[in-house]
Amino acid sequence: MSRIPPIDLHAHIRPDIAPSELTALESLVFAATRSLAEAEQVSARADPWTIWGVGCHPGLARAQKAFSSGRFCNLIATTPSVNEVGLDGTSRVPIARQLQTFESILDVLQDNPRITSIHSTGATQSILDSLQKRPIRGAVLHWWLGDEEQTRRAVGMGCYFSVNSSMLRHNEILDLIPPDRVLTETDHPFGDRQAARPRRPGSVADVESALARRHDLPPGQIRQRLWSNLADLVASAGCAAQLPRQIRVLLAST
Asked: N or C: which end of the chain has fewer CB within 10 A?
């Protein structure tokens, strides 16, 4: 890539996608997996601009039941990304099981920090309570919809926030997120249903434009600002060594 690519911190991508399709996105994409089994499918991939995360979606009973702290620890050894984990208050999966899984993950991440994309639908307070008890470096609240008090608490705890097009109508939340804690995401194919076409991972132009207006930045500077935020996040998590070389180089230049 000859330019600074857009950042998509959270997108769902087929594990068997062709490498050429990912290259064609011309974006840095952090791909979320929904189970340890799916993470194992992609663990040998070496896509230069796609970071495959290790996930265990709180809304999927099979993924939750099959979770193993040992398997999780082994899988994160070669990736800087845990994506996606957390809690879901709308899921039929018992919250006690979700909490057991999430807190086991946080226990591992306290000693092995990673960029961690956290799902919090219907469970924003419980997510913050868990992070308060088991603080980690590198926490990113994806598609965050907490109230004012919870959002201020999350900011005070050092969390970052990844924003998709569906969040752009929530000014009351965006007003509370400091400009140095924000990143872009699509949550493709879920969080970009309101986005301009083409709807695909890495297509965050509408979110970038909205953030540029909100923070009174020229359109050409907002992406640089987002890369600077990502560099700070990587430094906070201390996981630069797990990133592909070309991404480390670009981060070092921001």
From this structure: N
Retrieve residue 17's tokens: 């996608």
Q: Nearest-5° angle of CA 70, CA 72, CA 75? A: 110
Do 222 and 208 contact (CB within 8 A), yes or no? yes
* Best CA proximity match to 235, nearest among 163, 138, 162: 138
User: What domains appear along the chain, each with residue ranges and CATH number?
Assistant: 7-252 (3.20.20.140)
Residue 50 has φ and ψ, to the nearest 5°, of -125, 120
Q: pTM, whole model, 2 decimals?
A: 0.95
| Interatomic CA distance for residues 231 and 180, integer angstroms | 11
Q: What tokens appear for 91 in the block? A: 């899921």
- CB 205: neighbour CB atoms within 10 A? 15
Walk along the chain (254 residues) in steps of 10 and give the mean pLDDT of each run.
86 96 96 98 95 98 97 96 97 97 98 98 98 98 97 98 95 96 92 70 94 89 96 97 94 89
